[in-house]
Amino acid sequence: MPARARPGGAGMRRGASAHRGCVPAPHGARRGPCPGGVLPGAFGAPDRLVAVEPQEVNSRRPWIVGVSGASGTPYAAAVLRALLAAGESVDLVVSRASRLTLLDETGIAYRDAHWREDLGRWLARGADGKPGAFEVDTGAADVRHWAAGDLAAGPSSGSYAVKGMLIVPASTACVAGVALGLSKDLLQRAASVTLKERRPLVVAVRETPLNGQTLRHLVALDEAGAVVLPASPAFYAGATHIQDLVDFVAGRVLDAAGVPHRLYRRWEGELGGGSARG
Ligand SMILES: Cc1cc2nc3c(=O)[nH]c(=O)nc-3n(C[C@H](O)[C@H](O)[C@H](O)COP(=O)(O)O)c2cc1C
C-alpha cells in the first residue's frame, strides 16, 4: 500500500478568517467597521449595544473532536487531518478508554503530558500502519488538548465558543452516556453541552451488532438533534486501499459538519465508478 501525503497538509493554515464572527448590527444601530463592529449587548436590546474589540470578533471557534474507546482510531486521525487541512481549529478530547484502542491499533501510547508529540505520530500514521504515510506538522497546527478528566476545561461550558462536536469513533458506552446525559468525563460533558446549545453534534458510532439498548440510545441522540453516523464505509467510491475506506467515513463526518474536504470521490449518478479503478 503506497504511502500518501495529501496536498495542503495539516498545520499549513492557521487561525480564523479575518471576518469570522462578525455579527451584523441590529436594525437601527450604528455599525462600526468590520472587524470590530458592534454586537448586541445583554438580551440583544439596541440600547445596550457594546463595542467589540477586533480580537474578540476574531476569536477562535474550534471543532471539538472527541475520541472514545471504540475501535477505529484511524477514523479519528483522518478527521483530524482533514479538519486541520481545511484550516479549522480543533479542541481534542481523548477518552481514557480510547488510549487502549489507540495503543492496540497503532502502538502509540497517548500521554497528556506529551500529547502534541504523540498526536503527531498518530496523525502521520496510515490506516495500514505505515508510520510516515502523512506529513502533519502538529507543532504548527491549531490544536488544543484537554485531559478527559478535566471537567473544568473550556468545552465543559456552553459559553466556550465552538462550532460543534464530532465524536469519532463513538463507543456504545459513549453513546449511552451522551443519550442519558451522564457527563462521566469531559467528552460526554462536552457532547451534552453541544446538544443543549443546539450546536452540531456528529456521532460516528462503531459497534456491531447493535443491541436494542444502543439502538434506543441512538434514536434518542437523533431526536436530540445529533447526526448519528455509523462508521460504515461504502464501496461505490472505488476504494482500493484501507485508507480509502477510512477516508470515506471521515469524509462523511466532515460532510455532516459542513467542512469542505477531498477525502473521497462523490457519487455522480453513473454506475460502474466503483469498479473503474480495479
Ligand atoms: C481494543 C478494544 C476495542 C474496543 N472496541 C469497541 C468498539 O468497537 N465499540 C464499542 O462500543 N466499544 C469498544 N470497546 C469497549 C470500550 O472501550 C469500553 O466500552 C469503554 O468503556 C468505552 O469508554 P469511553 O466511551 O469512555 O471511551 C473496545 C475496547 C477495547 C479495549
From TrEMBL:
Catalytic activity as recorded in UniProt: dimethylallyl phosphate + FMNH2 = prenylated FMNH2 + phosphate
Pfam family, one: Flavoprotein
Domain Flavoprotein as annotated: residue spans: 63-256
Keywords: Flavoprotein, FMN, Prenyltransferase, Transferase
Broadest EC class assigned to this enzyme: transferase
Record region (Disordered): 1-27
InterPro entries attached to this UniProt entry: Flavin_trans-like, Flavoprotein, UbiX-like
Low complexity biased stretches: 1-21
Record: residues binding FMN: 69-71, 95, 206
Membrane spanning residue stretches: none
Annotated EC: 2.5.1.129
Record HAMAP family: ubiX_pad (MF_01984)
Family per similarity comment: Belongs to the UbiX/PAD1 family.
Protein task: Flavin prenyltransferase that catalyzes the synthesis of the prenylated FMN cofactor (prenyl-FMN) for 4-hydroxy-3-polyprenylbenzoic acid decarboxylase UbiD. The prenyltransferase is metal-independent and links a dimethylallyl moiety from dimethylallyl monophosphate (DMAP) to the flavin N5 and C6 atoms of FMN.
Name of the protein in its database record: Flavin prenyltransferase UbiX
Gene field: ubiX
